[in-house]
Structure prediction request, 512 residues.
Amino acid sequence: MQHSSIHWFRKGLRLHDNPALLAAATDCCRLHPLFILDPSSNRAGANARRFLLDALLDLDGSLREMGSRLFVVRGCPQEVFPCLFRAWGTTRLTFEVDTEPPARQRDTAVAELAAQHGVEVIQKVSHTLYDTERVLALNGGKAPLTYKHLQSLLTSLGPPEKPAPALTQEHLQGCHTPCQTSHDTDYGVPTLEELGQNPAEMGPHLYPGGETAALARLDAHMERTAWVRGFKKPETEPTSLSPSTTVLSPYIKFGCLSVRTFWWRLDEVYQGREHSQPPVSLHGQLLWREFFYTAGASIPNFDRMVGNPICLQVDWDDNPQYLRAWREGQTGYPFIDAIMTQLRSEGWIHHLARHAVACFLTRGDLWVSWEEGLKVFEELLLDADWSLNAGNWLWLGSSAFFHRYFHVYSPVAFGKKTDRDGAYIRKYLPILKDFPAEYIYEPWKAPRAVQERAGCLVGTHYPRPIVEHRAASERNLGRMKAARAQKGTKREPPAGPSVAESRRKKSKAEQH
Prediction:
C-alpha cells in the first residue's frame, strides 16, 4: 500500500537519526512534514522562540533540497489534525515519542483522533538514549531515584541504540510533497514579529537554532579530542566570558541534535584512550539527562511541590518583590545579578551559575519557592527542558534527590573562586565596570568616594543588597531543618554521586 503520510515534528527538528520520519517515508506516495505552533503549549520567551524559528527555517531548507517542504500550522493539535487528515487524505501519522506527561496526554488524544479517521499511527523512540518505558519496567514501574541506580539498570540494557540513517533523497523516491505557489503564505515559518516579538529588543544572537548549526557545533567540539576526553563538568567555570562547556543543550532540547548521535560521536573519541567517566564526563551528562527524563515520565506532579511524592513540602514565602528583583537582576548582589542579566539577554548560563542563582532564590537567601524559579527558567532558557528543569530545581531547592541543604552557595565568595577581578560582572553589569576588584562583588562596602569615582552610587544607580546573606542563610537553614523534621524519620534516598562528590571537594569559600 502506498501511504499518504504526515510526519509530525515536535522536538526532533532534524533529518538525522529520525526513525519516525523514515517510517513516514516508507511505502509513501505523498508526504506532508508538519510542525504545529500551539500557542498554549509552553512559556517560552523571545530567545527560545527565535531559536525555534531558526530551527524550523533550517529544517524547511533541508527538506526543500530534497524536493519537499515543511508545513507550519497554528493551533491546538487536537483541533488541527481532523481538518488535515481530511484535506490531505492521510493514511499514516508518525511522530517521535515524548515522555512528558502533558505531551503524552496530547499524543494519546491525537492517536484516538487518528483511529477515528482510519489513520495508522507510528511512534518511535529517539529523543532519549533509551526507551524510558523499558527502563521503568526494569525497575518495577518506578523511577530510579539515584544516579547509580539508573546506571545499574542501564548496564543490563547495554549501550544505547545506534542512530538511524539520516533521511536522504533516496528515501523519498516516488514520494511527493504537494506544494502550492502559496505555500509560504499558507504554511511558511512565521517571523518573530508575527509571534509578537520585537527583534530590536532582543539580546545577541549567539546560538542560532537548527540542525545545521547543531552538527557544526558538534563537529567543532569533537575535533577537540583531548578536551572531550578530559572533560569534567564540575571543573568548568561559571564566570568564563565564553562558554566553558559545549552549549549543545539547546540543540538537544529541540532535537536539532540527536542525543544518540552525540553519545556515539563521544564513543568514537573515547575509543582506546583514557578518558573521564560518568557522572562528570560528557557521557555522564547525557546519563543525567536520562535520569531526569525517567523521573519526569513517572513521578506524579514532578514539576510542582504539592502532590509530588518525592518532594519535601516546604512553607515557602510568597514574596513578589524578592522574586521580581531576582528575575530582573536587581538583588544588589552583582554575581547573582550578572548571571540573571546574562540569562535574560542570551538565553544560556553555565550550570554552576544556575546552581548559584537557584540556591539564592530558594533555601540560600530569599526563601521563594523553586516552582517560581522553574517558571522563570522555562521562559528565559534556550534549553528549558521540562524534565531537566523540574529535576534540577527540585535538586537545588533541596526538595528532592539532593539533601545536603546546609551547603549554600555564597553570592560573593563563589564567583571570586574563578573570577577574582570580576570580569564577568563588568561584562554583564557595566554600571559597575569601574569599581576596583576589591569591591566589585560587594559594591555597598565601597567608600562613597570610590563609588563616585566609579560613577555608580549604591542605592541610587545600583540597588543595595535585598537581604544580608549571612543572616538570611542562617535563618533559612533553620527553616529547612524544621521542614525536614516535620517530614519525619522516613529514610531519604542518598544524593547522586556527581554533585555529592563535587560538593565535598568544594572549598569553604563557597559556603557563607
